[in-house]
Amino acid sequence: MTIKNLDSIGIKLIRTLQNDARASFKEISENGSVSLDTIKNRYNALKKSGIIKGSTIILDPKKIGQGNLVFFGIQTIHNYAEFVMNILRKIKGMYVVTKAIGRYDIEAIAILDDIEKIGETKNIIGDLQQVKNVDVDIFVDKTLLCPRNFEFKEVNKNK
Amino acid sequence: MTLDEIDLAVLNALKKDARTSFRSIARTLKVSPDTISKRYDRLKKTGIILGSTAVIDPSKIGYSFIARFGINVKPAYAAQVLEKLIQIPNVIVASKIVGNHDIIAISVIKDFQHLCRLRNTILEMANIDKAELGMWIDTMELCPHYFII
Predict the structure, then answer these.
(1) Using the beta-carbon criterion (under 8 Å), do B50 and A58 form an inter-chain contact?
(2) Chain-chain contact of B92 with A146 (C-beta, under 8 angstroms)
(3) ipTM, 2 decimals?
(4) Closest alpha carbon to A137 in B70, B44, B65
(5) CA distance B30 to chain A (A)
(6) Do B18 and B75 belong together in one domain?
(7) Chain A contacts of B63, Cβ < 8 Å?
């Protein structure tokens, strides 16, 4: 299955699983008035094509003591972005490290225990000779995530 | 609530694949499927597990990169702007932040025209002072484990 033939059943299946990855295929098929086999086949095709990469539970980081989400915007000396990125990837808690275009050469998101850890991490990055500047933004309150905002239908029409 | 080994094993198994059957988790841990089912219910009830979602590969459905917006708003309007932002199609994460900006928004982007339209949409919103932009050029990964719906 590719986006070219991602049909309404496939899109509906993705939408349902985005809301609740554990939804039973039996219920999905009954609600959509299609056969259980159709749903199973669509799911397997979506996984095989890589459109659905997998599924996961969403946790409340505070309740499991996982601290704060932190954004790092980093400016590096020309040509040293890759070098700095490799160091960043080794820092515990970093889970997005990417080259960027814009104000920063590298943007990263980490989960760090507390303010001290955030300061410490900022210093580790800032102390690197190849780094010109580090900006830090700390996520506060609830982070809103809306995977349902992915637009499938529009993609479909354009292709 | 303190989590014991069984709770953690349930969380880890479901983080890797939210569709893992309780039966197979039970088998690995050598406990009954009922135990797993009860633990799962408790983890949901206490709000540790907020929900589950399918992980989609944006590059497979016509997106080419991710953009991050750092947004400054007029004082006291952050909550209001945030609510509106998350309703914009393709914006997948939005949060209040403390630092250089007041709000961060992360969006999946199809092409440069799309990016320009989205930037205009954000800038035209009420109570926004400025929006700075960063384009992520080598990652389409945004694992949602830690984001709260």
Answers:
(1) yes
(2) yes
(3) 0.78
(4) B70
(5) 22
(6) no
(7) 150
